[in-house]
Amino acid sequence: MTNHSITFTHALCRAPSRSVTDGLRAEDHGAPDPDVFAREHAGYVAALRQTGAEVTVLEAAEAFPDSVFIEDPALCLKGVAIVLRPGAPTRRGEAAALRPDLQRLFPEIRDLGPGGFVDGGDILCSDTEVMVGLSARTDAQGVAQLRPIVEDLGYQLRLVETPPEILHFKTESSLLDPETILASPRLAATGCFDGYRVIETAPGEEGAANAIRFNAPVFLSQGFSQSADRLSDAGYEVRELPTSAAALLDGGLSCMSLRYSLPDR
Ligand code: CIR
Questions:
Q1: Is 24 touching ligand 1 by the criterion CB < 6 Å?
Q2: Span 108-141, pLDDT tens digits
Q3: Which of 83, 97, 236, 242 lies 20 to 30 Å from 140 when distance is taken between CA atoms?
Q4: Domain interval for residue 140
């Protein structure tokens, strides 16, 4: 299996709750409008489906304002769902809430051993490597629990640092193809992507880096035209999507889905 870090048969999303207005944010620029969030989310789901993938959308979970960011409580690799432990206290219950759905959808589930925290937003996977950024949400104890699971699945784990001013490692990085990463200049400057080709986002467009390569297209948040041009010039098929509501909660395109492939059943 090659290119399994960019080609997917499936995605799992969760509809935004009305309680999304209470979602976490580092700086308050106003609460997102739940109707705008729902509209942008529906556009996102439709765009993923247009690539040919089967997309499951779970019911909104009102008890968890940030649960639309479904990438954080789990990691999907080679048909296995790994249940993570989100670092933010208000998000800890999201993993248990999601587990039954993962059990229904995946042939195999694994759980982290006890201790520590890992958010999916801090994990960037290529075909061979799982890069994990230590952050305010992901700690060394959590990574120690994750390491044997990903190594058992045939990946190497690369431990890196998420700079303190960045929420999650993937807030400012994404995989464009198995050898190429899109990243903000400040994250790339840490040297964490040694061995990969790096395309940097344009000045002032750090938010463009929370992109996803999902089958043929690279999905990019709207409003980052210079970075979009850089990707088009490099030969990528770029599709821009509105993410104004998610951005108010420090979220972007990668946070709103778990992307995975299942063998034919
Ligand atoms: C949080 O602070 O947890 C949410 N408001 C945003 C989560 C974004 N998720 C991600 O980058 N994977």
A1: yes
A2: 999 998 999 999 999 999 999 999 999 999 999 9
A3: 97
A4: 10-260
